[in-house]
Amino acid sequence: MAALRPPALQHLLSHQTRVLRTTAWHQQRRWAQVHDARFLATTQQPRHILEKYRQKLDEKARAEGHADIDSLKAAYSDKIKALRKETDAVTAPLDQARAGGVKEPLTPPPSPGSSSQQPQQQPQPQHQATTTTSTTPQPPTPPKSPSSSPTGVKPLSAILNLPKVLPLPNTTLTNLWRQHHSTHPRSLCAVIPASTYQTMDSLARQHPHFVLPVPHPQQGAEIHFCQWTWDVETRSATVLFTQLAEYKVRGEFAVPHTTVTHYLDLVGGRRVVKDFVKDEGEGQQVQEGVEVEEEGVVLMQGMVVEDRGVKVEDAQWLVMCLQRFYGGWDGLGGQGGLERAEERRRLLEWFGKGDERFSVEKLLEQAERMG
C-alpha cells in the first residue's frame, strides 16, 4: 500500500473532522435560552450601587438639610429629568441610525431657537457641495519646530540670530559664543577655523569610529569610544562619546556621556567690517570701519551628561584629543610636531581597518605626548 503524502493526509483528517462535527451537531440537544444581555443589564435594580454609596449620599443629604436619601432624590428630580431630556435629544439620531442601518454622516441636532430663525436648507447638488468644500478656508499650518530635524539636532538658527551674527568679526563672534555657554557649568564650546575643521571632517568621513584615552592619576587610563554622525538638514556634524566598557556591553544602545555638535553655517568666507585706528598726525587718531574678508569658522557646542561618571575636565580632554587625532593643528611643533601628527594618523587608520599594528599602548603613548 502506498504511503500517504502530507497534503493528502491533512485533507483526509479535515474531512473526517467535518463529518464528526456534523454528526455531533444533529445529536446535540440545546436547552439554553437566548436573552438580550443589554436588557438584563439595564433593567435590573442596581441595589449594590446604592448600598455602595449609601454613606456618601446620607452625608450629602444631611449637609443640604434633607431628612434622608429619598428626600434628596425628590429635591433633584427636576434636574434629573432635564438632563435626561437633553441626553435623549443628543442620542436620538444615533438610535435612529442603528435601527435603520444608516451609513451617511449624522447631522448634529440644532441648537435651541435655531430652527425658528433659519429656514430649512434644501439638499444641494453634488457639484455645489464639492465647490463649497474646496473653498472652505483651512487653518494655517503650524510652523516647524526649531529642532525639527529627525536626528533631534537643534539648528544654529535656533541658537543665534544669524543675520546679525554674519557681519561680526571672528574675535567678536568668539567672545559671543563663549559668553552664550558660560552660564551652564557642564557645557562645552569652541570656535574652530574652517581650514582646520575641513581636515578633521575629511578624516572623520573615512574613519568615523575611534577610541580615545582619559588618563586618571594612580588609576591608569579609561578608554572611550567616539562616533561621528552628520545631519544635512541642520548642516552639522555630531560626535558621541561613550565609555568603551559600556559600548561593549550595550552596543548601539549604549548611552553617550558627552555629545558635541559642529555647525557649518559660517564655514564660508564672509565680508565683515573691522574698526581700525588711523593716525591723523599731531596726536590725533581716528577710528574708522574697513570692510575685509574674514575666514570662515565652525562653531562647536557640547554637553556633558550629569551622573555618567565623567567630569567636564575629562570631556574637554576628549575633545582636544579628538581634534589632534583627526588632523587638527598638525602644523604645531615644527618637524617634531609633524612626525607625531603622522603617528596619530596611522593609529587612526589602523583602528579603522582593524590592523594588528594598532595597540592601546601606542595610543596611550601619543596621549601622554599631548599632555
UniProtKB/TrEMBL annotation:
Intracellular or extracellular location(s): Mitochondrion
GO terms under cellular component: mitochondrion
Main subcellular location of this protein, as a coarse class: mitochondrion
A Pfam family reported for this protein in Swiss-Prot or TrEMBL: ATP11
Record's keyword annotation contains Phosphoprotein: no
One record GO biological process: mitochondrial proton-transporting ATP synthase complex assembly
InterPro entries: ATP11
Positions of the UniProt region annotated as Disordered: 91-155
Keywords: Mitochondrion, Transit peptide
Membrane-crossing segments per the record: none
Comp. bias intervals (Low complexity): 113-136
Family to which this protein belongs: Belongs to the ATP11 family.
UniProt-recorded name of the protein: ATP11 protein-domain-containing protein
